[in-house]
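User: Show me a protein chain along with its predicted structure.
Assistant: Here is one chain, sequence first, then structure tokens.
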Amino acid sequence: MTKTKDVYIVVGGNGFLGRHIVTQLKDRGDIVSSLDIVQRYDDVAFYSADITDEDQVASALKRSGATCIIHTASPPANLKDESLYYKVNVEGTRAIINAAIQCGVRKLVFTSSAGVVFNGADNVDVDERLPYPDVPMDAYNDSKAKAEQLVLESNGKGGLLTVALRPAGIFGPGDRQMMTGLYQVYENNKTHFQIGDNTNLFDWTYVGNVAYAHLLAADKLDLSPPAPPISQLEKVPVSMDELPPLNDAERDIVETNLPPIDKTTGKHQVPTCIARPLGPYLHPPENAEEIETRYHNPADGSNNRPVARNRFDQLSPTGINQAKLHYPDKHPLQVAGQAFFITNGEPTYFWDFMRYIWHHLDAFFPGHRTPRKPFVLPKLVGLALAQASEWGCALVGVQPTFTKFKVTFSCASRWHNIEKARRVLGYHPQVGLQEGVKLTVDWWWAEYQKGSHKTAH
């Protein structure tokens, strides 16, 4: 039986990420429309609506005929009026969920954030089991966490299937937030300032990869789990000993060898006796050509390594069984009702990423920067200066640009385990960091030449 194709509506489809999702859906031939406040593009059907108004959202859903909502809309970070975060992220998401159920929409893919689990401490190789912090770091991520909870708790209500994706550090063409800040630092010749010792690894994610993950999630949202949730078994298990062993479909998901993430590093083949580059020989072996060919053109799976697990791994039998007991109504290896971290899988030192972007800007503005040694402010000094800045700004009633959150953010290790997304969604980064930075800066330069930026060199 042929599966009916979805009709998509992208909420926030004129925004940075939303536009990339719209483009990818168009490129693969899907029917897609955009819901936003202001129309910026005319290549897809557009619906104007206030997402906090359930009736307006429902009207757009009915007119579009959407069967799948991809919800990317969110206010930008660092707003002076922090109440807007709750209004848009929480109340807006609640209105979208209610409208989706009212209109019989089958799927909802929600753009959350990796920051929903950040509490100021280092996040090192964390996976989706990490709980929300008791004390939120900021209003933006607190509202995102509340919205994500609404989405996941709504899975199954009124036939609606939901999933939340948690991208980290999105960058790419169309980014007018991070790139604006980095260019201002570059323009003011302050790229030599550094807060912290730059030993903190950080996840950055190319926007095209994030968009691709949204499409994967939408496609797989209604797939059946590899085994029924334990609440559907004739006798519901209440302990690890009573759980049935993993079946073939479950083992296939967690035991299949994954390819390396090598978009930036390239592939590194391990020489062996039957596949190696040949050096100078007085008398080469009879099968010399075959040996060298095997090395330069390895067969799929020829360099695989066994999947190693331990009981602390969320995808080990123990980890999967614990998840089954904690959430008996859903399977840990299904898409519906789950959250997934989405990154490039290439954590890099925080300030190295900034400097790589500035390095690419040098090609367009030769001679602008004077080479200088980094001026390093220890984290504690940075926090003290941020505190003083916040007090001073409060006295005169302006919004501080140098804050404790920014210092903490730039000095913390924040990188995430994306194995669950790779195995359950089938996600694999399509664009590496190196290529992504080049695409981003090339786009920025093209916009600069057109006079599209507010800042000028």
